[in-house]
Amino acid sequence: MFENVKICAGFRFAGVHCGLKSADMLDLALLLSDCPATAAAVFTENRFPAAPVLCGRKQIAAGDKIQAVLINSGNANACTGHQGEVDVAAVAEVLGAVLELPRAQTFISSTGVIGEPLPVTTILKGVELLVGDLEKDAVGNAALQRAAQAIMTTDKSPKIVGVEIETSMGVIIITGVAKGAGMIHPNMATMLAYLLTDAEVELETWSAMLKRVVDRSFNRISVDGDMSTNDTVLALANGVSGCSLVRESDLEALEDGLLKVAQELSLMIVKDGEGATKAVEIIVSGAPDAAAAEKICRAVANSALVKTAFFGQDANWGRIIAAVGYAGVEIEPELVNVSFDKVRVVSGGIRDPHYREEDGAAVLQKPEFSVKIDLQSGEDEFTLLTSDLTHEYVSINADYRS
Amino acid sequence: MFENVKICAGFRFAGVHCGLKSADMLDLALLLSDCPATAAAVFTENRFPAAPVLCGRKQIAAGDKIQAVLINSGNANACTGHQGEVDVAAVAEVLGAVLELPRAQTFISSTGVIGEPLPVTTILKGVELLVGDLEKDAVGNAALQRAAQAIMTTDKSPKIVGVEIETSMGVIIITGVAKGAGMIHPNMATMLAYLLTDAEVELETWSAMLKRVVDRSFNRISVDGDMSTNDTVLALANGVSGCSLVRESDLEALEDGLLKVAQELSLMIVKDGEGATKAVEIIVSGAPDAAAAEKICRAVANSALVKTAFFGQDANWGRIIAAVGYAGVEIEPELVNVSFDKVRVVSGGIRDPHYREEDGAAVLQKPEFSVKIDLQSGEDEFTLLTSDLTHEYVSINADYRS
What we know:
2 copies of one chain form a homodimer.
Chain A: E1 11-16, E2 28-43, H1 51-61, E3 66-72, H2 81-99, E4 106-110, H3 120-137, H4 141-150, E5 159-167, E6 170-179, E7 192-197, H5 203-215, E8 232-237, H6 248-271, E9 279-287, H7 290-301, H8 304-311, H9 317-326, E10 337-340, E11 343-347, E12 350-351, H10 357-364, E13 368-374, E14 380-387, H11 391-399
Parallel strand pairs in A: 3-4, 7-8, 9-13
Antiparallel strand pairs in A: 1-2, 2-3, 2-8, 5-6, 6-7, 9-14, 10-11, 10-13, 11-12
Helix pairs in contact in A: 1-2, 2-3, 5-6, 7-9
């Protein structure tokens, strides 16, 4: 499935089963750069940040370069107190020793059950397996796919995107790998994403770029705002392509590519949302200000009744209107228009006189469509990608201890 | 089931099928006082208030006494623009004429599908049926139960509560009838409640009392804040008992009784939440201020992942902690304690050392239990009643056009 994904130079990958998850499911991944890479990151804003987030924040704040990223699924190392941080340090120490890297150049992420102590011994055993794998088949798509699989929790499939970009310095590649999150508000399933490039970029530029990109991608799916204890987006630039990007046009090309990778991963996350059968773009326009647009957009995108209606392929615009109405924004009901794709459903706050139920139903039957809400009260807008709420969502989350 | 419910004097009830709902389901209810009653009400804060809410607000603001309340299910008369208000007026006009009451003394509520024009002719035909019923069997429990049934939408059973109260002026009765609402955030299924008493109370006192009572009952289930287009609580005091309450102790007794009725109806609504199998009280204490307590309480009570864990009888305290963490309140993670009923699960932000999984699981298996979250950072607290999120919720809302 990912055979043709572009993979940036100077990175090796491995994914193994060490015993955190049942059966032979892969549960430990390594992303390894050939040299220390410039590192930027965006972390969860949850007030209970997990131990690996607390440790990662310190590393990123210190401006450390990162060379090795170890990610385990099956255990979040969250709500584990001081011991959790001690465990991260222990794992990082061993990982660094085995790979002959300074501890500061190793980065640890975790996802899985909250509140259980990190099984350090199990993970250290896994580190040995990973290092063994590095000798064999660690370059290329199959290895990357194993790593992508090892970070999954309730995801159905691994998420990998790669793009090639022409710059004045030559061709560079950006490769992204991510794991998803349940697609319902409030969401606490962890989102992890790793954006890798073989370009060389200055740290401050790279950090600012990542923040802008995250804001227009991972923060535009209906998971953020309700961040999990472990959410992390890490971006590494190792410079192995030899292309050092400083020109404005090159940096723009890099940012465009990074955004494309991040947006494609976001779409994959939404489509693979727990039990999801639809990916729906909610577009609020004509808002008096950006905050109002965002509030209304989130109210609609997170509405369980709207999301179950999507699942039922029911063009139930009343639920959309009701969500707009309780978003806590002063609006003028008699100005609001709503469309499903190009089908105008509501004009001036009431059913459009030309709207035919079958036209709305036809849109709702598509796997991807948009809901446009025009407030006609200003110039600001906001967009979110959301999914439907299904029986399978309930099954997954009633049974899965996350 | 409601044979023994206390019914206040001077009220008659009727419920008929007029054709708004399919088959022979009752869909039109009348609550009729023998004389004009002092009327207070609390309405939805949704920015798309339905036509009957717009009309009702004007009546209540004018201080009009109310004698007849007509409630239809099957159509919300919401997002129907100016025509919606014209339709309410037309129905009220005919209702008043038939009952020989001034139009101002009739009150109309609607619940059901949003955005469809109100089928006025169908309803007027129903009014005739109702008036016919008044002649027959309109006093007592069977009649009240028919009325309670006629206002249901996805409710499984009618909701009626009655209490008898001793006052210095004699015995008075408060009778309440309500229809429920889906039990998930964000909720747009309409909640309607009618609180009736045969006491006599001064309007200003009655209004203030109702607001306080609603704030401690219907606003404490996880539906408010996300109010539907039609939510209405109407309280009528007709004075037929001959007890005019002015003494402070009598008014306190009245308020206690009103609160009891409202809280019991609230519990019924939660228990009958769409597909609900659990009623769970979320208690946040030790908060630095009331707003913080409420924010955290709502984040937990509205969390789909927490609610699906309740359904799965999974003592998944990690999801609760995660919801506390994203509520947007500054907290000190290392002070937070969490208990399921009396079982301490989390102490100081991490798993309590004495906690045993089987003790938590035993609590979660109960149909009603509490989740206590102590922030240990102040004196304020907030409580909400919520339910679980089930397969049936999805089925109901994917299929039901509300």
